[in-house]
Amino acid sequence: MTRNAKIIATIGPASSDLDRLRQLASAGMDIARLNFSHGDPEGHSQVIERIRKIADETGKAITVLQDLQGPKLRTGHLSVPEPIPLAPGHKLILRTTATQGNADQIQVLYPTLTQDVEPGDRILLGDGRPELRVGRVADGEVETQVVVAGNLTSHQGVCLPKPSLSASMPSEKDLSDLKFGLEHGVDAVAMSFVRRAKDVGDLKQAIHRLSPAEGVLPQVIAKLERAEAVQDLEAIIDEADGVMVARGDLGLVLSAERVPSLQKRILRQANLQRKSTITATQMLESMVHNPRPTRAEASDVANAIFDGSDVVMLSAETAVGDYPVEAVETMGRIIEDAEAHIKEWGQPTDEPEGNATDDALATSYAARALANDRSVKAIAVFTRSGTTARLMSKTRPDVPIMGYTPDERTYRQLPLLWGVSPRFIPMAHSVEQMIEIVELDLLRTKAAHPGDQVVLVASLPVGAAGPANFAYLHTLRSRS
């Protein structure tokens, strides 16, 4: 069975060596995520080099996704044994200056903390435990009281559910990491803690400014994990190339019970706007230490597919887990079973109302109609930037989509698209050359046979930059 939805595997200590990366690629990893909240430049550089080596050896396109840390708030260092259990009612002072951390006080590595909180606000540490309530706010320190018990540790995540943080985006660290990523040819960049469309626009401007080469630039994925992002959802989706439903922090700043409906809303809106969709966080979390997922986790992955996710993501499961390869294989099997029932339980594909004014979109739906109404084996999309392949993917045809491109970065970005199998080809200069490329490829790979039909989607005149405006039904000829 051919899987349409794609899999992101986060790379970490459990998965960064060459042999394990090979195993992940073989198991079904389509996108390798490098989390720049962890690791160092040398380690990230080595992983990128290994992924490129594996892609060259196997002929498989693998997207390298750089995930920027964003304005991540963390506690400083504890000078006493940890973890420190904090009980309800305990007083804890948070300081913005260097502090000998202990049970009574700890530094928070966020200089504007006192500007962004006020008495009565919640502050969450780690995964939401402990939870603190702000009392007095003074110069350089915040007095808090524990309201939900939990453990205090060094370098623990700090979450301020209150909207409108004053932190600049992208941060200085993000810009430094971005420059590194661009120099090493990453294919997509995920922006953490997006608040509004302007944040995404600022990152795209930075990519244009820092990119060492002309041509197709990395895709920008907006991670939706702040309450204010939900308020500016349509504008953020419009500005970004894709969105990630980052359910961990989203469930902290809002509430866990709101996450399922928000997931559906975000995915539906992004699909309406024809942007890439990723669902992430704790999808097979129990597989960090167990060889099989819980039934609830299997249902979670399947429901993400039914909700319209193009991509589903593994985090700790592959980064630090005991069963990284098994996690990818398991996710692949769950996706395949869900897709076998997608017509029963999946979201309907929204077609443009009336006559679509966008030529490329109208062409994509015309191609889908040709493919679905006839005995067509595949849709062959010729694309330079990836836009035509993305629009074709969003129509959710019943047959495979072959994405043919002469651009190397576009080739490596196509794994982000539902149902698209990337093909790296020389530049075609005529429709006849396109037909020859498709026939040779489909017959060689036995994806189709002489007499089968294929729909070609391209832009005319051939070779000119522009939206797709051409859908052509072709019968494959024998090339013996």
Brief summary of the model shown:
By secondary structure, this protein is of the alpha/beta class.
Keyword list:
8-stranded parallel β-barrel; TIM Barrel; 22 strands; Pyruvate Kinase, Chain: A, domain 1; 480 residues; 3 domains; M1 Pyruvate Kinase, Domain 3; 7-stranded mixed β-sheet; alpha/beta
Explain what you see:
- The chain is of the alpha/beta class and 480 residues long.
- It has three domains: 241 residues, Phosphoenolpyruvate-binding domains (TIM Barrel, Alpha-Beta Barrel); 87 residues, M1 Pyruvate Kinase, Domain 3 (Beta Barrel), CATH 2.40.33.10; 117 residues, Pyruvate kinase, C-terminal domain (Pyruvate Kinase, Chain: A, domain 1), CATH 3.40.1380.20.
- 36% of the residues lie in helices and 22% in strands.
- The chain has 17 helices and 22 strands.
- The chain has an eight-stranded parallel beta barrel, surrounded by six helices. Strands 4-12-8-9-10-6-7 form a seven-stranded mixed β-sheet, covered by helices on one side.
- β8 and β9 form a beta hairpin.
- α1 runs parallel beside α12 and α5 packs parallel to α7.
- The longest helix has 18 residues.
- It is elongated, with a radius of gyration of 24 Å.
